[in-house]
Write a structure and sequence with these properties.
The structure is a single chain. The chain has 272 residues and is an alpha+beta fold. It has two domains: 2-36 and 216-254; 68-209, no CATH class. Helices cover 35% and strands 21% of the residues. The chain is built from five helices and seven strands. It has helices spanning 8-45, 52-55, 167-174, 204-207, 215-254, and strands at 50-51, 69-76, 82-89, 92-103, 108-116, 133-141, 185-192. A five-stranded mixed barrel has the order 2-4-5-7-6. Helix 1 (8-45) runs antiparallel to helix 5. It is elongated. The two termini are 35 Å apart. 26% of the residues are buried. It is found in: Cell membrane.
């Protein structure tokens, strides 16, 4: 009696059900992975800061050092300071200010010191590079890519400006080997000694947002997709059960053999 479940129409139903369940499970696992990644990155950013040399090496990928708070002590290379135009802060268009810092160990660390609203005014105090030894605390972030640039494609920038934060370019313009530069940059959160004037400090979540939604929202999406998978199984089982019930009723009405091999009696009609 169950052979009807192998007819083309029913096989198509089975295939759709399997695809729906598989799709929901895959999307659920994906959301679970996004939650784990987001939650893990938030935990990294909450850790206590450590020396930048403990987290990264010159020229090497940041790896597990990304998103960590780090401390770097050294002197700024005033001749290597670069302006990154076209960046928005608190709804106002301005520029990032990136200054390379040579640490006591000789590593070149690009430091995103903050944001200014009028970088064309080279004489404004906020653009003055602090002299002497400084200690900078901030977040280690991966290099920007051309996708981060807000200037027009092919637009040539004047000296002292770059389209995005690329350690290789910054090292080249500072006149130091790229092999000595950190493959990333440090987003300044605090500086000691504090300069009299400095660019506006940027929040790490605005510069390098982890996600636009809460990690717990991803976890709820994961649960929802698995509920959808379970609903698809229940829906499929309900259709199959109903099909079997209809098939059995038709066989009983036609007097066809049932599962025990005995023909069901045909309905009798009383003589008129």
């Amino acid at each position: 009696m169950y052979r009807f479940l192998l007819t083309p129409r029913w096989l198509l139903l089975h295939a759709v059900a399997v695809a729906a369940v598989a799709g929901c499970l895959v999307l659920g696992w994906w959301q679970a992975g996004v939650y784990q990644d987001s939650h893990g990155r938030h935990e990294l950013r909450d850790r206590e800061p450590v020396a930048v040399t403990e987290l990264a090496s010159p020229g090497a990928e940041l790896g597990d050092g990304a998103d960590r708070q780090a401390v770097a002590t050294g002197e700024y290379l005033s001749g290597g300071q670069q302006i990154v135009p076209g960046r928005v802060h608190d709804g106002t268009l301005g520029s990032f200010v990136v200054t390379p810092l040579r640490t006591d160990d000789g590593m070149i660390v690009p430091v995103l010191r903050g944001w200014v609203d009028d970088a064309d005014d080279a004489g404004q105090p906020a653009l003055t590079v602090p002299q002497g030894e400084v200690t900078v605390t901030g977040y280690l972030l991966a290099p920007e890519t051309p996708d981060h640039a807000t200037v027009r494609t092919g637009q040539e920038l004047e000296d002292g400006r770059v389209a995005y934060i690329a350690p290789d370019q910054l090292a080249q313009r500072a006149g130091v080997p790229a092999a000595e530069a950190l493959h990333g940059y440090l987003l300044l959160e605090a500086e000691s000694p504090q300069p009299a004037a400095a660019p506006a400090v940027l929040d790490v979540d605005s510069v390098a947002p982890i996600r636009d939604v809460s990690p717990w929202q991803n976890l709820s999406y994961w649960a929802q997709w698995w509920v959808f998978a379970l609903a698809a199984v229940i829906f499929w089982a309900s259709i199959v059960r109903n099909g079997i019930r209809v098939r059995r009723r038709e066989q009983n009405e036609q007097g066809e053999p049932t599962d025990d091999g005995v023909s069901a009696p045909a309905p009798s009609h009383a003589p008129s």
